[in-house]
Known about the structure:
Layout: E1 17-19, E2 33-36, E3 44-46, E4 56-57, E5 66-68, E6 75-76, E7 79-80, E8 88-90, E9 99-100, E10 111-114, H1 128-145, H2 147-150, H3 154-184, H4 187-219, H5 243-249, H6 255-260, H7 264-280, H8 283-308, H9 311-333, H10 335-358, H11 363-369, H12 371-380, H13 383-396, H14 401-414, H15 417-433, H16 440-453, H17 463-474, H18 482-486, H19 489-514, H20 526-533
Antiparallel strand pairs: 1-3, 2-10, 4-9, 5-8, 6-7
Amino acid sequence: MAGIQHEGPVRVRPIELRHQDRRCRQPLSTSACRVTRGCSPRACRSRSAPRPASDTVQTTVPGNCATVSAEGLPHTGDTHISAPPPPLSLCDVDATTPQRSTLPPKRQWRHIVIPPSHAMPVQRRSTRPLQMLAGLLLGLLVGLEWPSLGSTLQPIGTAFIQAIQMIVIPLIFSAVTLGVFRMGENARQLGRVAVVAFVWFYVATLFAVLVALGLNGIFHPGTGANLAATGKLPANLMLSVDWTKYLLDLIPTNIVAAMAAQRVLPTLVFAVLFGLGLSRIGETTARPIIMLFEAVMATMFRVTGWIVALAPLAIFAIMAWLFATQGLATIAALARLIGLMYLGLIIMVLCFWVVLLLFRENPIAITRRVMEPVLLAFTTRSSEVTLPVHMETLERMGVPNKVVAIVLPLGYSFNLDGSTLYIALAVTFLAEAYHLQLTWSAELTIIVTAMIASKGIANVPSGGLVALATVLTAIGLPVEAVAVIAGVDAFMDMGRTAVNVFGNTVAVKLVQKLGGSGLTESDLPEAVVAAAQTV
């Protein structure tokens, strides 16, 4: 037999063969197209096509003619074919029909695999998370053993943070604009993505508050606590969120000034409106601007890779400075509060894992893949610094740009699960330290106020302390009580920022699952994908 003979054209589409006899145990995935021998036609059934006749096999072939030889693996375009010993001819086809085959005797060769054209090359596992962890541990050691040296390393960490902040606004603007443009023609799907995202934000926030109240009710860390101030309050600390000013600040009077001031929320609002406008003026007119933004996004990913390559050194410097200037004495003063907060954060992560399992995701694999932005958040204590790395990590995982670009910036502004748990736990700790009885009405006030205040801290200076002061005043505690825990805020900020990042990873995956059709595969241009693979 010199090849496969076909009558009429065959349309290219993946199929899945279900094997039911003992020789056909190997499962065939829908992510690749296969021609299989060695089992009877009666034993092989296709989910996406009728059962073939006894002397035919169902196959899927590319739209290019190729000859497969026994000497090696040919390459036609982006299609790789694993070859049987005899030659095989694949012809140009464009519709569906069973093919008559006179193949070699069974067991001489088993199958041909043609991966889909969008399949990406296998990437080597990055060792950067291990390097970052090593930098963290070394920085801790230097800060405790040689504090005079550690206290001089702050400029290295500051330079790294400023370098990341330099690319945040261009990346957010280009990514959000592209995402809204791609989804703009389907307003219903855009609305569904937003609704699913915000529903999850509030569910996760409520759960974080309940975890904090439950832990406080079990362990009572504030009982007998020392009320001596461990730090100073920021100057001109707001006692509550001015919601009128907050909403008006979302509308920038000068978008260039807003971008120059690193104001993320006004930039996000303008990018959404700009993307919707581009989707309404037509593909032909908008194409030059879209190409420009695709180039900007690819460039920002490449620059991110250069900067993040220095992350282990920056993490070493930041941790050395932090422990050299704060020391262990400050941590020991409020060790129960710190330990209980980290226990709550671990509970939050485990619950996130359960949610991922319910949606048939592998929580261990996802955690491993986002470890780099999580460690970066833990050491820099800044969600803004983590955003570029987090975006490229999710898009490299195959999440569509239109989901990442919309959900992730919103999540970094409104889905602060770790910060919400910290606020609720700190308030209950201080209430017990001041001998204030937490009645059901007081706990309900904490739940409602914390859920609202945590959504309004994204655009407010010292937002976490403002939200904490808001809840304290709501239950009748003096705002000066914040000074009791201000000295250890940096150590608690590390954990809560890392959980904020992981919580937003879960939010993006849930929106991808529940946001509707068309959100299962990456929609990035090849240039952006190539840039992301280098980060």
